[in-house]
């Protein structure tokens, strides 16, 4: 849900996400979510290819 805190459990160079990086969900729908990392970078992530939360 929007406002929830998440932690990424696998690095992804394409998304510039590091393992153990924390973020806050800012938008969630059926196919994707947007998370704002603690360093203020917003990431749009599609659920199917990225399952490491």
Outline the structure in words:
- By secondary structure, the protein is mostly beta strands.
- The protein has no helices and 4 strands.
- The protein is globular and about 25 Å long.
- The model has no long low-confidence stretch (mean pLDDT 86).
- Strand 3 and strand 4 (42-46) form a beta hairpin.
- It has one domain (5-46).
- The protein has strands at residues 5-7, 22-28, 32-37, 42-46.
- This is Conjugal transfer protein TraA.
Q: For the residues shown, what is the average pLDDT? A: 86
Shape: globular
Largest sheet: 4 strands, antiparallel
- Number of H- or I-type helical stretches: 0
* Rg: 10 Å
The percent of residues in helical segments reads: under 10%
List strands and helices in order, with pairings.
Elements: E1 5-7, E2 22-28, E3 32-37, E4 42-46
Antiparallel strand pairs: 1-2, 2-3, 3-4
Describe this structure in a few short sentences.
This is Conjugal transfer protein TraA. By secondary structure, the chain is mainly β.
Key words describing this protein structure:
single chain, mainly beta, 4-stranded antiparallel sheet
């Amino acid at each position: 849900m929007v406002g929830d805190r998440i932690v990424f459990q696998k690095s992804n160079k394409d998304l510039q996400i590091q393992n153990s990086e924390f973020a806050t969900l800012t938008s969630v729908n059926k196919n994707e979510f947007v998370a704002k990392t603690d360093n203020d970078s917003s990431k749009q992530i599609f659920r199917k290819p990225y399952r490491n939360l």
